[in-house]
Amino acid sequence: MDIIISNRIREACPQLVLATITCEVKNAETSSEFWSEMEAEVQRIKSVYALEEINKRPEIAATRKVYKILGKDPNRYRPSAEALCRRILREISIYKVSTLVDVINLVSIRSGFSIGGFDLDKIEGKEIRLEVGTADDEFEAIGRGLLNVAGLPLYKDKTGGIGTPTSDNERTKISADTTRLLMIINGYSGRSGLQDAVDFSIELLGKYAELANVEVHFIE
């Protein structure tokens, strides 16, 4: 799956690096063993950060900066990593969805990167473009209905939008039947920390999702 970054995104964030993981997996209900790892990370976040500091994590701050450059209010449309960490610091439980979704959330919480997770078999065409969303882009965000993606970095396949750093799309979301996974880790702060996030993703998928035939690419 080729990913092409538009010139406008490049101009807004010259340091952007994407890490992609494609693999075969088996999805299931989240195990208690995995959730123990999630709970340990929740406690770490609580011990390290205050609520008013979380948007200053370098990975989150860089994503917010790009939103502002593109004309989007990051306080109204928060990057997903920030939203997850804020949830923890506001003493709201992290939702348990499925192994694959929860793995992505755990990696995002630990790394600070917003991560797209897609069922590869639902993506239309042979390439994905990272563009700036417009008012003409209709986007049904997972669990939140229509999302105004104008001014957001927007991944698009042949049919339309599939994901932003704020939310992914219902059409290409991970389900219980997902067997081929695409993860896109958004490094708006550059390459630092991306390899660690990739390694942690592969470790978790290997332990909990029967990982096979994995491919990793960095796009600069």
Please characterize this protein's 3D structure.
The protein has 220 residues and is an alpha+beta fold. It has a single domain (2-219), classed as Phenylalanyl-trna Synthetase, Chain B, domain 3 (Phenylalanyl-tRNA Synthetase, Chain B, domain 3), CATH 3.50.40.10. 34% of the residues lie in helices and 23% in strands. Strand 7 and strand 8 form a beta hairpin. The strands form three sheets. A four-stranded mixed sheet has the order 1-4-7-8. The longest helix is centred in the first third of the chain and has 17 residues, at 32-48. This is Phosphoenolpyruvate synthase.
Provide a concise account of the structure shown.
The protein contains 6 helices and 10 strands.
